[in-house]
C-alpha cells in the first residue's frame, strides 16, 4: 500500500525556490524521524535532510543554509523549502521515515535549469 506521497517538484531557474511536500500514513509518521533524500541521474541516492519527531533538523552539507525541513504532526506531513536552487540540486526527491524498512515512494522531480 502507498505509505508516502511526495509532491511539489517542478522546473525552476537557478536561484529560484520550490517547496516540496510529503504526506505519510499515520502508522509510519507518528513518533518517527522523517527525512528527505534525492537521486540525480547516474548517481546514488543521497541524504538531504531529516527532522526529529520533536522538530530538530539535520542537513547535508550540500544544502545547509539553503534548504529548510519542517513537519506538521497533526497532518502527517513534512516539507522541504528549497531556496537558492542550483543545477546540481536537480534530482528525484523522496521522503521516508528514518530507520523503517518501507518501500520508497514515487518521488517528485526537481529540475533546476535556465
Could you characterize the architecture of this molecule?
- It is a single chain.
- With 114 residues, the protein is mostly beta strands.
- Helix content is 4%, strand content 46%.
- It contains 1 helix and 10 strands, in the order βββαβββββββ.
- The chain has one helix at 26-29, and strands at residues 4-7, 10-12, 18-24, 34-39, 46-51, 57-59, 67-72, 77-82, 91-97, 108-112.
- The strands form 2 sheets. A 6-stranded mixed beta sheet has the order 2-10-9-4-5-6, with no helix packed on it.
- The longest helix has 4 residues, at 26-29.
Features:
114 residues, mainly beta, 6-stranded mixed β-sheet, 4-stranded antiparallel β-sheet, 1 helix
Amino acid at each position: 500500500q502507498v505509505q508516502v506521497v511526495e509532491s511539489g517538484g517542478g522546473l525552476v531557474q537557478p536561484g529560484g525556490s520550490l517547496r516540496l511536500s510529503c504526506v505519510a500514513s499515520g502508522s509510519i509518521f507518528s513518533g518517527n524521524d522523517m527525512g528527505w533524500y534525492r537521486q540525480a541521474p547516474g548517481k546514488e541516492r543521497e541524504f538531504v535532510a531529516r527532522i526529529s519527531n520533536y522538530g530538530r533538523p539535520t542537513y547535508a552539507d550540500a544544502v545547509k543554509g539553503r534548504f529548510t525541513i519542517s513537519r506538521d504532526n497533526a497532518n502527517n506531513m513534512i516539507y522541504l523549502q528549497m531556496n537558492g536552487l542550483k543545477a546540481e540540486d536537480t534530482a528525484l526527491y523522496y521522503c521516508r521515515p528514518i530507520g523503517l524498512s518501507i518501500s520508497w515512494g514515487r518521488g517528485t522531480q526537481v529540475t533546476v535549469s535556465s
